[in-house]
Fold this sequence. Notes:
With 167 residues, the chain is an alpha/beta fold. It is 22% helix and 20% strand. Strands 2-1-3-4-6-5-7 form a seven-stranded mixed beta sheet, with helices on both faces. The protein is globular and about 35 Å long. The model is unreliable at 4-15 (pLDDT under 50).
Amino acid sequence: xxxxxxxxxxxxxxxxxxxxxxxxxxxxxxxxxxxxxxxxxxxxxxxxxxxxxxxxxxxxxxxxxxxxxxxxxxxxxxxxxxxxxxxxxxxxxxxxxxxxxxxxxxxxxxxxxxxxxxxxxxxxxxxxxxxxxxxxxxxxxxxxxxxxxxxxxxxxxxxxxxxxxxx
Length: 167
C-alpha cells in the first residue's frame, strides 16, 4: 500500500504490497504528515509522521498527505481519488493511464500532474526491486505543498510537470 500498492502491475494475482522507492520522495524533497494507504508497519521509504493502514477511506485525513492507493480493478482508484481531491492537500501516485475513465477527470481536478520519466520499479516487502511494470506512473498534486513537491521533482529530473492553464 501507501508505501506502495502496485496492484496488478507486475504479475496478475501477485501481492498488492508494493512500496514506492525512496528516490521518488527524495526528488519531491518534502515531508508528508500522513500516508493514507500504508502497510501495517508504515511505508519503509515514506517521509511522514503518521500512517493509516486499514479502512483509510472511512478515517479522518489530516495535513499534507501521501497517497499510493491500491491499483486493482478497472475503476478502483475512483473512491481514493474522490477522497484525495475532497481532502485538498497532498500528492497521489497513480498509473498514467490517460485513456482510463478516471484519469482525465482526476487530471482536471489536480493543480499539477507530473509524468514520471521512467517506469518505477516498485519495492517488494522483502526489499527486492520488482520488474519494470507495464504502465508508467503519474503524480497528481492538490494544494500548494503538492505543487511545490512536483516542482521540486521536475527540477530533480523525475519527469515533466504540467499545471493548470489559465484561460
